[in-house]
Amino acid sequence: MIEIKNLNKTYHLKSGDVEAAKNVSLTIEDGEIYGIIGYSGAGKSTLVRCINLLEVPDSGEINVNGVQLTRMENTPKGEVLKKVSDKKLNRARKGIGMIFQHFNLLDRSTVFDNIAYPLKYSGKSRQEIRERVHELLELVDLKDKENVYPSQLSGGQKQRVAIARALANNPGVLLSDEATSALDPEATEAILNLLKKLNRQLGLTIVLITHEMTVIKTICSKVAVMENGAVVEQGDVYDIFAHPKQPITKKFINTVSNLSKINKMIAENVPLVQLSGNDKLVKLIFENDCTGEAVISDISKRFDIKVNIVLANVEMIGDRPLGGIIVIFKGSDAAIADTFKYLEKIKVGTEVLV
Amino acid sequence: MEFLEKIMPNVVAYWDRFTTSCGQTLQMFAIAGVFTFIFGLAFGVILTVTKRDGIRQNLVIYYIVDIFTNVFRSIPFIILLIFLIPFTRALVGTAIGVKGAVVPLIFGAVPFFTRQVETALANVSYGKIEAARSMGSTTMGLIFRIYLHEAVPELIRVTTITAISLIGLTTMAGAVGAGGIGSFAINYGQNLNHQDIVNVCVVLLLAFVCVLQTLGNFFSKKTTNRELITKREK
Question: Residues 155 to 194 of A: which have CB under 8 A from any B CB?
Answer without folding.
Answer: 162, 165-166, 168-169, 175
